[in-house]
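Standup, Tuesday
Yesterday: got the pipeline producing structure tokens again.
Today: sanity-check two examples.
Blockers: none.

Example 1:
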Amino acid sequence: MFASPHRQLLTSVRRMLHTDPSAVAHTEPMPVIDERTIPRVLDLATRIGESMFAVGASAHDVTLAIIRVCDAYNLRGVQVDVTYNSITVSFHLSGEVWPETLVRVVRVTAPDHAKLQRVQALVASIEAGLDLEAARTTFRAIRRVPFRYQQPVIVVARALLAVGVSIMLGASPLIVGLTFIAALCAALTQAGLAKIRVPLFFSQIAGGFVTTIAAVVVSALGAAGIEPFIGIRPSIIVASGIVLMLSGLTVVGAAQDAIDGFALTAGGRILDLTMQTLGVVVGILAGLELGGVLGFTMDLPGGPSPFGPPLSLFAGATIVAVAVAVFNGAGIGIILVSALLSAVTLVGYSGALAVNLHPAAASAIGALLASFIGMLIARSLHVPSVAVTTAAIVPLVPGYLVFQGLLEMVNAVGSSHGVLAAGGSLIDAAIIGIGLASGASLGLYLGTPVRATLASVARTRARVRR
């Protein structure tokens, strides 16, 4: 008998709305894997993830790298859990055996983008068919590679970062020189404290204190009528020092982890970032209070410090980006890309300001452009785009607004109106910082599918040529 038209129509509608349970396979193919190989693959993947996370990669990049390594050696379906200080990787071959699980504690070190670049290149080689033993040997060699630059180079690079900020703010040659000396003293102080393993929070206090004392001394010399310190802006010294001490914070990484859903990791990074920032604030306030006790005070700035002429702006931003890339251990390729992206950031920022956007929105647009282009360029460098994006957005860190708010707070003791004004400056600085992090994160997300499309097109062309 034939089914009625109504029943056929009902069956067709049901098929359109519901899945057919009988169409689902009751079994799935399982790769044939030597059980002795599983722990070796998991160990390699976990160590690769640990090394990436320790030198500045985001939790998403670490998780993706571990999965890529395991997939390359037929360990599909691994479970990866990345927290702020540990990585757990588990693989269950079948329901008849216990899962193989590895846990490694991550000891976060200073960013090392050159090592990150080598590890990413190794992951790409593993996907291309590198033998397991050869991959393990290569990784052991990468782990033994020391930091690219000697300590004196890092100290000088950090001082030059402050110089770049002062040039961006249109400082005179005298202020630029004084900024270099103050920043060099702060960098040497922090390097000395790091050698004796003083916690970074207290190191940030010491750096902020040294920079502020230098600015207070310059202000006192100008107030005393001593040439050539009359009429100069010592506040630029502290503003440049603030950018120096905040440049190493993982703002973009924390924002990216939060958006990716790694709440625990993002929370840990944000708390760490907050404590380090508070360290700088405490050091600056201590320096200002000590100057006030000794009778040396600093005048409040008349308003937000404008950037200098375009040539000074781009020259200073380039110096800042190169300096950040150097003390993050980058090679010449990442350094050049960082310098290029800093110019892109400023172009986007200046263009947004030209149409009367808020500085926070302009900062977000500049960071978005830099991170989007950085995502596309980073593919050929085998390095997470955060390595080239971080250096590019540091020139827009609102160091001057932070110092202005702190100085207003010190001078407004006992006045509720002054405290509110100081809070406004600090809130503006925080909003700009959030704009930078948000713009950089959005650029990474917009660039990811474009990069994947370009990679697919490149693979297709390669197959056609072969």
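Example 2:
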Amino acid sequence: MSASRIVVTGIGASSPIGGTAPESWSALLGGASGTRTLEHEWVEELQLPVTFAAEALVRPETVLARPMAKRLDPSSQFALVAAMEAWEDAGAPEVDPDRLGVDFATGIGGVWTLLDAWDTLKEKGPRRVMPMTVPMLMPNAAAGNLSLHFGARAFARTVASACASSTESIVNAMEHLQDGLADVVIAGGTESAIHPITIASFASMQALSKRNDDPAHASRPTSIDRDGFVMGEGAAALILETEEHAKARGARIYAYVVGGGVTADSYHITANDPEGKGASRAVEQALAMADASPDDVTHINAHATSTPVGDPNEYQALRTVFGSRVDEIPVSATKASTGHLLGGTGALEAVFTILALRDRVAPPTINLTEQDPEVPFAISGTSLDLGSGDQLAISNSFGFGGHNAVVAFASA
């Protein structure tokens, strides 16, 4: 592994609160909620128990050329929209295709393509199933299509570790750059799984909020009256480079990617380890890689999904690492605004963490009525000033299957 420092030179996002990264960040700081009542006929037809979600504010097919959009599942459409924005934001780096890689994740993949094809098969027969069905539904479709679009030939890799997926991909991208496998990597994650079957399934396991009468306030991490998470959709992308490559081309540097940790709980397929051992080890790994101590951390973007069990489990995991200081570090729980993008959530929250360091502000956590005494984070419904001086932040993601991923960023 080389001693190269890894930098972020471009960001892009399509989220429930904005069609671009700057729009999403501005809306987040303004206290926006991306959760709305679903207007689809199938909500009423199927009598779904949850009638709201955080759909992307801008549909990707309105951004992409029609022939391109038709060949892609919505999850890949979102990925391409976010990556194109990030690439332009980075100044469209001139890089040898053999030195350009892709690390792009999803938690579920092309669920809309898969289930639409199943309906077509049942209703119209096998001859009407599209030839592109499998290339559109496969989980690696987003990474493969980004490789094709940008001419990336170093590698195109996909992580599918549920809600930890895109944070894990960012950690992988950092390591691939440090290992000398590429000079530039397009990293991130995507998800478009607001579908009747996923809503019904998550609702059946009592994971979703059921505030059908007040969707904008349904996602309320750390609030004592939280009752589940809100499904979201969208994608986010980062352009990562070695510092040498970025400086040689005069690129603007948003932040440094200084550490990452990836662990497994081996506890339960859906529940977190209540002692948070795997999560705390992931944080410790990220800080060790960053050559930092817990006292150096100035901001935390919490996974904080707004579930009754998950939020206190994360608090306990962080308290294991930070001790009582965890109650003093400014924490943001941005899923209150965006909902939970599943495999895309870590990448979107990485973008927010990077911008928090740039602007030296911890974004607000909306919908916090009365804070749960079991989750006494230093969290606020208004933005918190991070102060001057060097900044170090971590962003956490935890997923079904016992996956834990943490990435650490330092201010530029």
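Quick observation on example 2: The chain has 14 helices and 14 strands. The chain has a mean pLDDT of 97.
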